[in-house]
């Protein structure tokens, strides 16, 4: 017997807005009884879908239905082979990264994702808090198990930045996102997404990487504390359109799978090229604050190298590699 969520997302895939599909056809395709179909349709309605029923015709999605933000909706929109196929959706969690780490430690397969509608302890980089209001933004963590040495893990963060920027482009055309080394995505110079990458490894082997992504989809930046509201924005603010959260999530997983597969097959170069197409700091003055209080490096930005390190030409003319930090 298939899990009910899988049956539900398959029913949603079968339903169309412009034509009816009969209960019998759904029952035949999914190999479940007519009464099971009826019960699942009832459940889908309760879960937020508007489904019309017509005698002798069957069911169709109402053209006015909005996609709910649920596990079923995301699953029904997935076009991936692995990423998101094992989906853990929660209304609330402390942190999707923390939950993903527990699942990874229990052996969860690569591509397992955790999504929460809100987080009570959303974590940003360097111990910062990630504000995670409900019903507006995407908070997701993905478990990856790449066969690469741990020192190459930073390339995975850049790969995720590419996936995020590419997914965003589909929703905010003609605005173009830019990447801010190493973990942020900006639009109009303001932050729309951040990435928190956490790794579990031995000296020469990665056990797993958790990539946590927070994406401001429909949030009003003015709802954030003042120090953040001036430097943050959301896709809705820049596009003037409400973003379908389930569709964005599925699009992100699809873009991520595409770049991850390519990177494992052909190496980091294609990802690097794409990342550079979103990077607009080459040739400009850049300052990177380090981990230790007061430590920083500054100079002219020369781009990034094959391992994802930032290259800065200092006043003395030497090009230095910076592997971590916060760029201005
Ligand atoms: C940053 O810019 O500092 C990184 C922010 C990462 C936030 C995401 S939201 C989903 C995942 N769960 C967390 O607790 N953090 C990441």
């Amino acid at each position: 017997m298939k899990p009910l969520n899988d049956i539900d997302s398959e029913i949603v895939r079968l339903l169309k807005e412009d034509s009816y599909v009969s209960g019998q056809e759904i029952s035949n395709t999914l190999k479940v009884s007519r009464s099971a179909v009826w019960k699942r349709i009832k459940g889908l309605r309760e879960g937020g879908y508007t489904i019309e029923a017509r005698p002798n015709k069957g069911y169709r999605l109402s053209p006015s239905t909005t996609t709910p933000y649920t596990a079923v909706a995301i699953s029904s929109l997935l076009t991936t082979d692995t990423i998101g196929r094992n989906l853990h959706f929660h209304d609330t969690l402390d942190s999707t990264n923390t939950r993903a780490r527990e699942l990874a430690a229990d052996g969860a397969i690569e591509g397992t994702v955790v999504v929460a509608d809100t987080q009570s302890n959303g974590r940003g980089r360097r111990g910062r808090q990630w504000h995670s209001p409900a019903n507006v933004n995407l908070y997701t963590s993905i478990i990856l198990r790449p066969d690469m040495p741990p020192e190459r893990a930073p390339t995975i963060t850049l790969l995720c930045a590419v996936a995020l920027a590419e997914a965003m482009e589909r929703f905010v055309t003609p605005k173009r996102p830019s990447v801010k080394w190493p973990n942020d995505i900006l639009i109009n110079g303001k932050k729309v997404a951040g990435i928190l990458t956490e790794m579990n490894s031995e000296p020469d082997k990665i056990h797993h990487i958790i990539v946590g992504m927070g994406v401001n989809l429909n949030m009003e930046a003015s709802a954030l504390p003042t120090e953040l509201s001036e430097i943050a924005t959301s896709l809705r603010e820049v596009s003037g359109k409400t973003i379908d959260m389930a569709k964005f999530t599925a699009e992100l997983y699809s873009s991520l799978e595409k770049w991850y597969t390519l990177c494992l097959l052909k190496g980091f170069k294609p990802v690097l090229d794409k990342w550079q197409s979103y990077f607009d700091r080459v040739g400009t003055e850049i300052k990177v604050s380090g981990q230790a209080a007061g430590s920083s490096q500054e100079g002219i930005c020369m781009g990034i190298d094959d391992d994802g390190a930032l290259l800065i030409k200092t006043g003395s003319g030497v090009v230095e590699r910076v592997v971590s930090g916060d760029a201005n």
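The CA atoms of residues 173 and 239 lie 8 Å apart. The radius of gyration is 22 Å.
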